[in-house]
Input
Amino acid sequence: MFLNLFFSLIGCVTCLDYDEHYILTFPNGYGRQVNLLSILTVPWIELGGECSINCSKTGYNASIVFHTKPFYGGKKHRITAEIFSPNDKKPFCSIEGEWNGVMYAKYTTGENAVFIDTKKMPTIKKKVRKLEDQDDYESRCLWKDVTYNLKIRDIDAATAAKH
Output
């Protein structure tokens, strides 16, 4: 038996150096737990489903599929993607691999290359406006009480703040 929890989001990322805005959808997130023959496994979060990234300025877009692990066999964290030039129906690049590992690119030119190795990526600190400068419904402002109570391990207060 699988326990599935579902959530979905849409976001906007701005690349200040290029004055580009990307609208993206996110994959679904599932809380998974398998109960077979009274053996309870450790729960895990799994990403699954289709999402997209679109830039209105350049017209480039990508279609991404996060593959959920089959019940028997298969691998976790698989991803496939296609990247399209403006107004093209065929992708100029296809990507496959693991979203939390190495992804490989295949270009229509015949070139194959490592697209990205997430394990080798440096951690970059986010630039976030101070809470007092954020609007009421910006993420950090909206969730500040939940975050604080989770940090101090007060689950009841975090749950109350979430409501």
Remarks:
- The chain has two domains: 3-120, 125-162.
- The helical segments are 139-142, 144-151, 155-162.
- Confidence is low (pLDDT under 50) at residues 1-7.
- The first helix runs from residue 139 to 142.
